[in-house]
Design goal:
mainly beta, five-stranded antiparallel beta sheet, elongated
Length: 282
């Protein structure tokens, strides 16, 4: 599923059951909704390190066709391993909605002797979702569905638990304790539904057992988890303990998002909690 203005890629994937030495195809698409921006070589023909020749085809975004894509293995090698032959980068036009079929046409696959091979072709249907104009909740968890409802992953320290000790909403919250050293609880990638700003809200709590230098921190990543930025921290002996705090973080000019809570504490009697994590995209 994509939204107007969004880029996406189509891999032309080949799964052979006999040896292949060459192939060709055209790609047809609805030019009123999508267009081809680029074509790049996949790994299929070169998977054995053999010399290859590939023609990247001719793009006609007015007619809705990418024509004359072909490739051959130069020499005696042939291919049996499944792999992508070509990666096609496409984009959705700004006013497009509904569905659009992307179809392979004029497909010819040949064996090392140059003979045509019977081929099963699978086209694909693209769903174009109209972008919502107003604020939209794109992520919410109050930890009522167990560990971790496919929304979170723990780090290797495994000091986070689904707890009934305290909660703002329902019975459960996410709790961290033990000999944690920046032990993380990290969200999945959050789809902003085509929007570029987000408001993140949550409630969190630290007990008075936390020592100086111990804390519960909140980080965000806008590059898929490659880098993180600390946005808020509750610190032992510095911030108010033994009560819930409400936090709100605003982010702008982003196109992807991950969340992370991080705790540092030194024994199982030092607890911290997180509840009602919500992301609203705008």
């Amino acid at each position: 599923m994509v939204t107007p203005g969004e880029d996406f890629t189509v891999d032309v994937f080949v799964t052979p059951d006999i040896a292949i030495a060459g192939l060709q195809f055209d790609l047809e698409f609805d030019s009123s909704k999508i267009q081809v921006d680029d074509v790049s070589k996949g790994k299929f023909l070169g998977s054995k390190g053999a010399a290859t020749f590939v023609n990247y085809g001719n793009i006609d975004n007015n007619a809705g066709i990418l024509s004359d894509i072909y490739g051959v293995v130069l020499g005696p090698s042939s291919i049996l391993e499944p792999e992508s032959f070509a990666r096609i980068t496409m984009s959705v036009k700004e006013q497009a909605t509904s569905t659009s079929t992307i179809s392979l046409k004029n497909v010819i696959i040949s064996d090392p002797s140059g003979n045509s091979i019977d081929t099963l072709i699978k086209s694909t249907t693209l769903t174009i979702k109209e972008a919502s104009s107003g604020p939209q909740e794109v992520f919410y968890d109050s930890f009522e569905q167990g560990d971790w409802n496919e929304l979170w992953t723990e780090g290797r320290q495994s000091y986070w638990t689904n707890s009934v000790q305290r909660a703002i909403d329902g019975r459960y919250s996410a709790e961290i304790d033990g000999w944690a050293i920046d032990a993380p609880l990290t969200s999945k990638d959050i789809d902003l539904d085509g929007k570029t700003s987000a408001t993140i809200t949550f409630s969190w709590y630290i007990e008075s057992g936390l020592d100086r230098g111990e804390y519960l921190a909140f980080d965000v990543s806008t590059d898929g988890g490659a880098t993180w930025t600390e946005k808020a921290t509750l610190r032992g002996y510095m911030d108010t303990e033994n009560r819930w705090h409400y936090a709100s973080v605003e982010l702008n000019d982003i196109n992807n998002l991950k969340l992370r809570f991080r705790g540092k504490m030194s024994n199982s009697r030092e607890d911290a909690f997180v509840d009602m994590v919500r992301v609203v995209a705008t």
